[in-house]
Amino acid sequence: MDEWITPTSSEDRFTNVNLGFVADQWPQMCENYRPESPHSSQGIVARAIRSKEGRPAKSDFGWQSPFWYPTLLMSIEFKKLLPPQGVKWLFVRARAKQIRDGRMDVEVTILDEDSELVALSNHVCFIVNIAPKPQTDGQGSKL
Q1: Prediction pTM value
Q2: Is the pLDDT of residue 133 over 80?
Q3: Nearest CA among 36, 119, 135, 30 for reference residue 80
Q4: 23 neighbors 3 (Cβ within 8 angstroms)
Q5: How far apart are CA 91 and CA 117, in angstroms?
Q6: Contact at 8 Å (CB) between 84 and 95?
Q7: Which stretches of the chain are DSSP H helices?
């Protein structure tokens, strides 16, 4: 996943102090693999077919089901110091090494406006479904 990022305020700039935050705040690419994701090719095709056939949307592993991606381990190697006044733009490339068994391993590369390497980061993240579980009465019946 590639993206150019800039602070929302026109006065703000990224500095060396911000690089840890930048390295840990990339869009969660595994969301694109969820069947109902508006971004996945599988989800787009499936929704188009169901719509054409007049069938309702399927939600076994629904897009609306909330997930949390806590970072368990993060390393960062600083390759180049940013200027003291900071920079307006940074390029961030996040690449999944593996998404499996509730875990995601990601490599993040950060470049400056001149495409020079600023930092490398590696992450191990959990993939946690935080949707509320239906309550039962102890006999298996939903309350």
Answers
A1: 0.71
A2: no
A3: 119
A4: no
A5: 10
A6: no
A7: 19-24, 41-52
Residue that wins the pLDDT comparison between 103 and 142: 103
Q: For the chain, what's the residue count?
A: 143
Angstrom CA distances, 53 to 56, 62, 115, stand at 9, 20, 48
What type of residue sits at position 14? F
- What pLDDT digit, counting tens, does each position of 30-62 carry? 776 666 666 566 666 776 777 788 876 655 455
DSSP codes, 1-41: -EEEE--SSTT--B-GGGHHHHHH----GGGGGSTT-TT-H
CA atoms within 13 A on the CB side of 85: 2
Determine phi and psi for 49, rounding to 5 degrees.
-65, -45
Reply yes or no on whether the pLDDT at 103 is more than 80: yes
CA distance 141 to 143: 6
- Beta carbons of 36 and 61 less than 8 angstroms apart: yes
107, 45 contact by CB (below 8 A): no
